[in-house]
Specification:
The structure holds 2 protein chains of 2 kinds. Chain A is of the alpha+beta class. Chain A has 20 helices and 10 strands. In chain A, strands 2, 3, 4, 5, 6 and 7 form a 6-stranded antiparallel β-sheet that branches. Chain A starts with 5 loop residues before the first helix and ends with a helix. Classes of the chains: A alpha+beta, B alpha/beta. Chains A and B meet through helix 11, helix 12 and helix 13 of A and helix 1 and helix 4 of B.
Chain lengths: 663, 174
């Protein structure tokens, strides 16, 4: 009896949450404008209530999945009684309706977190921030209720079993990839809310940047991990060993990441020097807008992508309207209000300020490059100028040189001083790092690949330049202290965050460079007991078999890998056929390693009983994702800096003081 | 005043972008080529269906736009597709067949019975070339330009309604 009404309970909770979000979107904002404390105080309970009811709605949908309630259309489309329970749990976000519900849940979760951690914010600021979050949330909840109800029933003809979750999504990487990515995307809406609140209030001071910086870093760290997980998943699940395809959906996750990175750096300038204020606010708005654009591109079907959700033009129109209203209105507010906050403090052309400005210009150029490449086919098509597609060659030919430039300046940034840095001193400090980077990078291709490779040398020189310049800076800071340990202890956590973040980028660049130039890939035909030599390894097919999984049948192969006669590993790739969908899938066998991966994917059976296989040796591929994890931990580490806690309590004092004055 | 205009710029850019996104909703993205296309036709060395001793390779596809059709005698839909392939061939398209996972005997019999649109048939008994091409099901048709680059791919059989579209693609790359 209880199970009968679970979906209705979910829908009811969803509608309540919508009501609460509408209140949250209006009452606190009006209250802040008209200075009514009671109205402003509305914000927090509404945010909590919204979070609680969305949690209930989400739990109801999950329950329908776990209970195999195929009368719910969304469950019938994305689950199957044979699906293992943990995939039933994750199938909730396996398709459009559920994933947008997860999106909204996470959004309300961020609102709840703002309420928990920003108790010390001035009352009107908090009301405005939560109010703006309420507006965004109301938009998404209206979207769900109007076009994407996940609780819709299939009555009276209930299917006997479900169509099963897309086999590509039945995987560990996919369990965590979307939630991480959404945490990032949605996290930027908090930053956006702070930006709009600052515009409305006309207040953008150092205190404001200290409130915003932790939220930016956390959202950015989640997005970094989310993108890395997506790349990792594509690598081992799609079966052909690529890790980045410049696919429109990948691009749309990279766009807010690039502007988010720019934002982190411009916030540093705004906090320390009080400059770049309008620019910082604009970046916050743009980063959030690009997150919304990503949602639009994925869910509206305007671009083709391997990620395509089941598309529906009415959904596209709704998200476009949502995008139009939130982004349009916020850019208008920006145009009208931004001048009030202008402040100008001069700085020399060689200074940390100037270098961070260059960093921002480069990152924005990269964003525009990717955005144009992604939308260009659409724009041309809309103008009736023909149908074309833009592939990796375009992106690589622009993105790679821009990254090289970015890294060149990245080495200088941490060493340079604010306001003014004598060129001669900068040169003296970094000469050693530059020469060492060049020398090592030039020799490594000889040692590793046996022959000179300009691309490898270039990739390594920029990575080493970044690392060695950081090392020089660290040395300088420790060297001047009374003892090395005391010097290290004096460094702030946000400094360490910067060091680790930059180090992460260097590690990723090493990975990209090595795997792009030294990967070995071959399609081979393997018969039983046949041996293949590849990249110094010998692959022997020792066994072919079949097995039955919970919801699939698989052809299996056993491949012994040896090197110089010593056993390295045994790989067991599979070719699976998922029963409910009749969909074939390749299950890749991997032997991962810090210095290289061995990768075997089964193709198909050939007439004489042998199998087509794709064998790859991928050097340093793990470094790609390891670097991303380092970047993300750098972002998180900076948040733990004492400065954000200590100064916040100072803000509280002044805030209480001003409240007392008002009272 | 100039600063005001400057600050309004993001909004104006967004309006233009919004216009294109709106137009995009009404367009069909699948008509645009996927980014995975524009790759070289994989290299191969195989015999022809007609002559077991012949050796042909990818240079066969150079110099002229050709339609490469993957077929097999065991594939019922390939029979349905034959009239359309014959029509394309009559309209002057160079057609190349790949007889996929088939025996010579059955393959030849099939062509005798249903027609011979192909100038040459690559004999791929083990499906190696099909694997390289990423063929999942037969039939599949690839348009290869004069430089041996794959420009268009038609999955599944070419229906009578598809002929015009395929013809247009051929014209486009000539």
């Amino acid at each position: 009896m209880l199970t009968l009404t679970v979906p209705e309970l979910g829908l009811f909770a969803l509608l309540v949450a919508l009501g609460l979000s509408l209140l949250q979107a209006t009452v606190p904002l009006v209250g802040a404008a008209t200075r009514r404390p009671l109205w402003m105080a509305f914000a927090e309970p509404m945010a909590w209530g919204q979070f609680a009811f969305l949690l209930l709605a989400y739990a109801s949908l999950t329950a329908s999945f776990l209970l195999d309630d195929f009368s719910v259309a969304y469950v019938a489309k994305n689950s199957n009684s044979m699906l293992p329970w943990y995939y039933k749990f994750t199938a909730v976000w396996g398709s459009h309706e559920g994933s947008i519900l997860l999106w909204s849940l996470i959004l309300s979760g961020w609102g709840f977190a703002v309420s928990l951690f920003s108790r010390n914010l001035p009352r009107d600021m908090l009301a405005r921030v939560l109010g703006v979050l309420g507006v965004v949330s109301a938009g998404f909840l209206l979207f769900i209720v109007a076009t994407s109800n996940p609780f819709k029933r299939l009555l009276p003809s209930i299917p006997a079993d479900g169509a099963d979750l897309n086999p590509l999504l039945q995987d560990v990487g996919l369990i965590i990839h979307p939630p991480m990515l959404y945490m990032g995307y949605v996290g930027f809406s908090v930053v956006f809310a702070f930006a709009i609140a600052a515009l409305i209030e006309g207040r953008l001071d150092a205190a404001w940047t200290r409130w915003v910086r932790p939220w930016t870093n956390i959202a950015w760290a989640f997005l970094t991990v989310g993108i890395a997980l997506g790349s990792w998943w594509a690598y081992y699940e799609l079966g052909w060993g690529g890790w980045w395809f410049w696919d429109p959906v990948e691009n749309s996750s990279l766009l807010p990441w690039l502007t988010g990175t720019a934002l982190i750096h411009s916030l540093a300038v705004t906090e320390k020097r009080g400059t770049f204020k309008s620019w910082t606010v604009l970046l916050a708005i743009i980063t959030f807008s690009l997150s919304l654009l990503g949602a639009f591109l994925v869910r509206s079907g305007v671009l083709t992508s391997v990620h395509s959700f089941a598309n529906d033009p009415s959904r596209g129109l709704f998200i476009l309207a949502l995008l139009g209203i939130t982004v349009g209105v916020s850019l208008l507010i920006f145009a009208l209000r931004a001048p009030r906050m202008s402040a100008s403090v001069g700085f020399g052309w060689l200074s940390r300020d100037a270098l961070l400005l260059i960093n921002n210009i480069l990152l924005v150029t990269m964003t525009v490059t990717v955005l144009l490449g992604t939308l260009y086919p659409l724009i041309l098509d809309a103008l009736g100028l023909g149908k074309i597609s833009i592939g990796a060659p375009y992106f690589n030919s622009l993105f790679v040189p821009l990254t090289v430039l970015l890294c060149a300046f990245m080495g200088l940034g941490p060493v340079a001083r604010w306001k003014q840095m004598p060129g001669r001193e900068l040169f003296r400090r970094l000469l050693g790092a530059g020469v060492a980077a060049l020398a090592i990078a030039v020799t490594v291709p000889f040692l590793y690949g046996g022959e000179w490779n300009a691309a490898v040398a270039l990739g390594l020189v920029i990575a080493l330049w970044v690392v060695l310049a950081l090392g020089r800076d660290l040395f300088g800071k420790v060297h001047n202290a009374s003892s090395p340990l005391a010097g290290l202890r004096k460094l702030s956590l946000s400094y360490w965050g910067m060091v680790i973040g930059h180090l992460g980028l260097a590690v990723t660049i090493v990975g990209v460079t090595m795997v792009s130039n030294y990967a070995i890939e071959r399609n081979v035909r393997l018969a039983l007991e046949e041996r293949i030599d590849l990249g110094g390894y010998v692959f022997t097919l020792t066994e072919l078999g079949e097995r039955r999984g919970p919801n699939f049948l698989a052809d299996t192969a056993t491949i012994e890998v040896t090197r110089d006669g010593n056993a390295v590993t045994t790989l067991r790739p599979e070719k699976r056929l998922y029963i409910a969908r009749g969909q074939p899938m390749t299950d890749v066998a991997l032997y991962p390693g810090l210095l290289q991966d061995i990768y075997v994917a089964m193709g198909e059976e050939l007439n004489d009983g042998s199998w087509a296989m794709r064998i790859q040796v991928k050097p340093f591929i793990r470094w790609l994702w390891l670097g991303a994890l380092l970047m993300a931990s750098g972002g998180v580490l900076a948040v733990a800096d004492r400065r954000y806690r200590r100064r916040r309590s100072a803000v509280t004092e002044s805030a209480t003081f001003s409240n007392e004055v008002k009272a | 005043m100039r600063r005001r205009v400057l600050l309004l710029l993001p909004f104006l850019i967004f309006l233009v972008l919004g216009f294109f996104l709106y137009r995009g909703l009404a367009l069909d993205p699948s008509a645009r080529e996927s980014a995975l296309l524009a790759e070289k036709f994989p290299s191969f060395t195989l015999s022809t269906l007609e002559d077991p001793d012949a050796r042909i390779d990818e240079s066969l596809l150079r110099g002229q736009v050709s339609l490469v059709n993957v077929w097999a005698s065991w594939c019922p839909t390939c029979k349905e597709e034959m009239p359309q392939l014959l029509e394309l061939s009559e309209r002057g398209v160079q057609m190349v067949g790949i007889d996929y996972k088939d025996t010579r005997e059955h393959g030849r019999q099939f062509l005798e019975e249903f027609g011979k649109p192909f100038e040459v048939n690559i004999f791929d008994p083990d499906g190696d070339l099909g694997f390289e091409l990423g063929v999942y099901g037969v039939p599949e048709t690839f348009l290869v330009d004069a430089n041996g680059i794959i420009r268009y791919k038609h999955i599944g059989y070419i229906t009578p309604d598809d002929v015009e579209e395929v013809m247009q693609e051929v014209e486009k790359w000539r």
